[in-house]
Amino acid sequence: MLGGVDSDTAWRSATVLMAFLIAIPSLWMPLTVARIFHRARAGYALLLLPPLMWLLNNGTVLVGTEFGITDEVSGDRVSLPLGMVASLTFLGLSVALLFTTYRLTRGRLVGATAVILLLAAVAGTFGWLAGVSVALSAPVLWWRNLPQRRRAIPAVLVAIVLSAGAVGAHSASVWAASSISAPDTTQASIWEDLYAGLAYPQPMLDRESATGVTVADAEAVRGSSDRAHELFLETAANDPGGFAATLFQKALATLKHYGAMIIVIIVGLVLALTRRAHQSRSLFDALMIAVPAIVLGLGYAAATMPVTQNFSVLSAGLSSLVALSLGGLVWSVTSMPSHVRSVERGRISSRGSSFISPLAPSGAGVELSVVVPTRNGADVLPETLAELGAELGADDEIIVVENGSTDQTTAIVEEIARTWQHASKLVLIHSSPGLGEALRTGTLASRGRRLLLTADDLPFGFTDLRGFRALPPETAVAIGSKAHPASVVVRGRARMIQSRIFRFLRESLLQSKVGDSQGTLWVDGAWGREFARLSREDGLMWTTELVLAAEQQGHEVDEVPVSLVERHETGTSRFRPGDAIRSVIGFVRLAIYKDDYCNEDWERSTRPDTATVEA
């Protein structure tokens, strides 16, 4: 089994072992790539890595190894030891990549170095080149985490010590093998392979080597390390031109073998590195992790023979770059500023005119804008508007947003507005169907320094408003939360299950810390209008999108306790089974696009509330 394929059972066992070994770094590689690019979608992109590797690497979905691939010269599959070399190298590189995404204190830096030394030693038992490639990733961590004036010498010392440790581990494994009468496959085989490499392009092509060495010459010294060593140095000294030409041809053949992979790497890295963003530093450090493996792997293949059995270390290094390039490609394409993407331009332009309030001319001061979306709310709106009118003052406004009603909602609100006797202002506007469309339209039409986004039946009465008014004035976003421990909420079993499912999806997919994103909202007016102009959702997920945007921008979302009024709980639910499916899809959609709400793309507006916004 260790030398090739002894039986189908052994081969299947080896395949399972290699798949398990490669699956280990797959557990944290998506997180690593996401942290490097500061974008969750870059990590999600690694779901495409196995099929991409199948296209790029001779039909294998295993990442970071050539195990199982048939060699074009010998016809044998790449054996388990060589597969272990590649897989352990990739494992070590992936751990080092993960470490580069954290700022390490001295103690943690020493701990990370110890982990890399352990992995380098394990890889070194299978091949000194693999051990050294892993060991040379540690100096990057020291260079990254130490002060600029004091990082060069420690990084060099770490490189020397860890490389020596990896070579020592290989020597120890060789000694252990020889002590149990294992055949001598140490330095002798290296010189024999180096000399055999001078016969290139034989045995792959029926063409004479530039050095004049033939396959027969290489076979003649097989088993004699000293003779192979002598002939190798003699050929290099007597014909340096032919020697150099042969090395160059083998390097080109190796690069040609990985041509498709290299093209993907170049495209992804060029797109990522040409972006003027702070991610470039993290990406550069990650690239330095893979460089030693690529240089050593390419050098080894060029020095021996460019066949699959000699590509183990190079394959691991290139695979790590493919993962980075895939994440970089997705990040570059999908995280361009919203003023660049044509879809974003069209959406924002279509909403620009909505900033003009129908209630008051530009410059009028409004303290609180209450946005009340409604659809078929004829039965509850008269009572709701009467209560709001009695609660609010002359500096406040009520914006009722009708969105697709089929009852007498419009006529009833128009009649209420015609006979309105309260100090606050009341207006009716219309939007396309959908809760999100209604909230967005009402928010864009508002002028208030503060926004209260509620429902047409005032589900919490004014318990939420009283809690909101007690918050500090600098609060950007707050929510009347049914999940607050002090909230008084008596809910049916169906709604309780629904809320728990929503919370689970929100926490797992969006990493949101807010207990309830479906409550009433208290929003800074300028920030809320800026969000509404850029928001995507048009249904139930609009409030979740708003809360997510605030969290992504680093705003603390305050949750205030509420008391659920009886009429809201006993009323007919407007939630339909189709809404559940759309909500799940919405959570996935927000998980993909959530990084667009970070400060790189847009931030809390410093525009005066009375200023006109140009689309």
From TrEMBL:
Instruction: Show where the Glycosyltransferase 2-like domain sits.
Output: 369-458
Q: Which Pfam families match?
A: Glycos_transf_2
What residue intervals traverse the membrane?
A: 12-31, 82-102, 114-143, 155-177, 257-274, 286-305, 311-331
- One GO-annotated biological process of the protein: protein N-linked glycosylation
Zinc recorded as keyword: no
Q: Which keywords are on file for this protein?
A: Membrane, Transmembrane, Transmembrane helix
Entry protein name: Glycosyltransferase
User: Native species of this protein?
Assistant: Microbacterium maritypicum (Microbacterium liquefaciens)
